[in-house]
């Protein structure tokens, strides 16, 4: 294995993930329509939050950079990050906005209807002011995510993080994280939809690719940013 450069090897964090952080409410009646679900169990959701938790479980030192609401669901996310060993220094408490929620069910294999409650939510209010150069400089890599390029303030925040990462020699990972209805391209009932063609999204995503070292996405997500993917995440199973 090639040794890391000294300036990276000595950094306290392996990765900082940036973007969505929600509370996902999973229907407990597997094989049931979302309309018929009778009970839900809550988990932390949003790919940046999930990546932070997953990498921590694998033994890496990870941190989450996002906003959470000043309420019980925001506290749940923070407390769960602490339980999982994720650094919480990058969590900004938004006094004016609620933590995002997602309701979802497992209706059939490869079919999981979901409803996003994200109108003016806390994590989408992430701004350039939330991106601290000194914090970014503590990590070997950052993960930026596609949904947070969908609004000007969050896009500017992630681009600032990319600039700082580059200046300090850190790697940049781009998780395409394409959810069409979070770009206003599908209705509220189409939360499970994974691909809707959009020249706007493609243009924005392609503008990010030159500054990234690793691109992660499903086949559907790669289709919205058609460049050379380095890693293809498994897609949902095809119908028989």
In terms of DSSP E residues, the strand content is 15-25%
What is the share of helical residues?
25-40%
- Strand tally is 11
| Subunit arrangement of the protein | single chain
Calculate Rg over CA atoms.
Answer: 18 Å
Helix/strand order: HEEEHEHEEEHEHEHEHE
Count of individual domains: 1
What is the count of helical runs? 7
Question: Which helices and strands occur, and which strands form pairs?
Answer:
Layout: H1 6-9, E1 13-18, E2 22-27, E3 40-45, H2 47-57, E4 62-69, H3 72-84, E5 91-94, E6 100-104, E7 114-117, H4 133-136, E8 139-145, H5 152-167, E9 171-175, H6 199-208, E10 214-217, H7 219-224, E11 231-232
Parallel strand pairs: 1-4, 1-8, 2-6, 4-5, 8-9, 9-10, 10-11
Antiparallel strand pairs: 2-3, 6-7
Structural description of this entry:
- This protein has 240 residues and is an alpha/beta fold.
- The protein has one domain: UDP-N-acetylmuramoyl-L-alanine:D-glutamate ligase.
- The protein contains seven helices and eleven strands.
- The chain has helices spanning 6-9, 47-57, 72-84, 133-136, 152-167, 199-208, 219-224; strands at 13-18, 22-27, 40-45, 62-69, 91-94, 100-104, 114-117, 139-145, 171-175, 214-217, 231-232.
- A seven-stranded parallel β-sheet has the order 5-4-1-8-9-10-11.
């Amino acid at each position: 294995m090639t040794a890391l450069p000294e300036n990276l090897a000595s950094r306290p964090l392996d990765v900082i993930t940036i973007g969505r952080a929600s509370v996902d409410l999973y229907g407990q009646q597997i094989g049931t329509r979302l309309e018929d679900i009778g009970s839900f169990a809550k988990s932390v959701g949003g790919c940046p939050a999930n990546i932070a938790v997953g990498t921590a479980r694998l033994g890496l030192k990870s941190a989450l950079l996002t906003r959470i609401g000043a309420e019980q669901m925001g506290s749940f996310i923070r407390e769960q990050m602490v339980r999982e060993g994720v650094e919480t220094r990058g969590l900004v408490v938004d006094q004016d906005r609620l933590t995002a929620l997602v309701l979802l069910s497992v209706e059939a294999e490869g079919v999981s209807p979901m409803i996003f409650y994200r109108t003016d939510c806390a994590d989408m209010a992430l701004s350039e002011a939330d991106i601290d150069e000194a914090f970014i400089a503590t990590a070997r890599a950052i993960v930026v995510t596609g949904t947070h390029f969908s609004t000007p303030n969050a896009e500017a925040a992630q681009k600032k993080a990319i600039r700082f990462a580059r200046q300090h020699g850190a790697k940049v990972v781009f998780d395409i994280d394409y959810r069409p209805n979070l770009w206003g391209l599908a209705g509220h009932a189409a939360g499970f939809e994974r691909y809707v063609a959009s020249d706007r999204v493609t243009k924005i995503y392609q503008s990010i690719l030159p500054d990234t070292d690793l691109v992660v996405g499903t086949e559907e997500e790669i289709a919205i940013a058609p460049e050379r993917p380095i890693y293809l995440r498994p897609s949902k199973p095809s119908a028989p």
